[in-house]
Amino acid sequence: MSSSSQAIRELPEFVQKQAQQALHQFLNHRPNAVQLDGNLHRSAIVVYEVTPHPLTREQVRLPIGLLNWRDNRWRLYFRGTRGRWVAYPDTPSVQRPDPLLDCIAQDELGIFWRQ
Known about the structure:
Elements lengths: L2 H7 L3 H16 L6 E7 L2 E9 L6 E12 L2 E7 L5 E3 L10 H9 L9
Antiparallel strand pairs: 1-2, 2-3, 3-4, 4-5
Helix pairs in contact: 2-3
């Protein structure tokens, strides 16, 4: 793997620390009614809803949101009906992940939280 492709896939150190802090704060300030999990992997933050499987009652992690770092900006995606990530409508790319995590929490369009 060339160093240029490595740079594309990995976050700069400052951005990585910023993303880890934002995700930690997001996960620790959610209502208890919804259990969330998340991880930072290469150049993306994935947010999961943790819920019991309807048949086995085992905990399953359902990916509900993706923040992708590209061209020095974060972009927000939701999981579409076919399992692919779809750009969240009318949301600009931003330099910090916090506003996009807030979009997931507020879910004004009812896309992230299954009713």
